[in-house]
Write a structure and sequence with these properties.
65% of the residues lie in helices and 0% in strands. By secondary structure, the chain is mainly alpha-helical. Helix 4 (54-66) crosses helix 5 (76-101). It is globular, with a radius of gyration of 17 Å.
Length: 193
């Protein structure tokens, strides 16, 4: 089955779950370019000889989605949001493995903007700190945590975030402002004083 339109993708996604490998293959083929762009954005700051490539990140995300526990997706934006969460987890796991090898040293401050989460050796510990802060935010405001994840790890546009969560674009923008302020205070405690 060749998927060509957003409606085709939506129809296919509604009939697919995380255990339907053939259906998921068709979805990933149809959304491969956006998935590659998402992965490329996350890995943009990596050194050239880095072992985790854009293609590897997309493929690892695919494997995680296939191994998912009966996941289901409503539409393209919802699927890309799920993929962004999986990519975030892959990057965090990668950072943890790298940090386990080299503990210590000063922490690197990471500014949260569109390109801030491109991981380098210097960022590995900061990425783990960010992941832990997002987990704390999720306990306070799950929607704001998901929005940060979708926007900065997944590279979704405001409209795509709104569609994935079933909220307005204005609510997305407001929640992102609040979440960024909360996260800035959480990652830099001296700001909250």
């Amino acid at each position: 089955m060749e998927v060509r339109t957003g409606a085709d993708i939506t129809t296919l996604l509604r009939g697919v779950d995380g255990t339907d490998r053939d259906g998921l293959d068709a979805v990933v083929r149809a959304l491969y370019d956006p998935l590659r762009r998402m992965a490329h954005a996350r890995l943009g700051g990596e050194r050239r000889d880095h072992t985790l490539t854009t293609t590897a990140l997309v493929h690892e995300a695919y494997l995680a989605l296939v191994d998912g526990e009966r996941a289901s997706w409503n539409d393209r934006a919802h699927f890309l949001a799920a993929a962004s969460r999986v990519m975030r987890n892959i990057l965090v796991d990668y950072a943890r493995r790298r940090n386990a090898k080299k503990r210590g040293g000063d922490r690197v401050r990471v500014e949260l903007d569109e390109g801030a989460l491109a991981m380098t050796d210097d960022h590995a510990e900061a990425i783990e700190d960010l992941h832990e802060a997002l987990a704390r935010l999720e306990s306070v405001s799950p929607r704001q945590s998901r929005l940060l994840e979708q926007r900065y790890f997944g590279g979704l546009k405001l409209e795509e975030c709104a569609a994935a969560l079933g909220i307005s674009r204005a609510t997305v923008a407001r929640d992102l402002r609040l979440a960024r302020a909360w996260l800035a205070c959480e990652l830099n405690p001296q700001l909250g004083r």
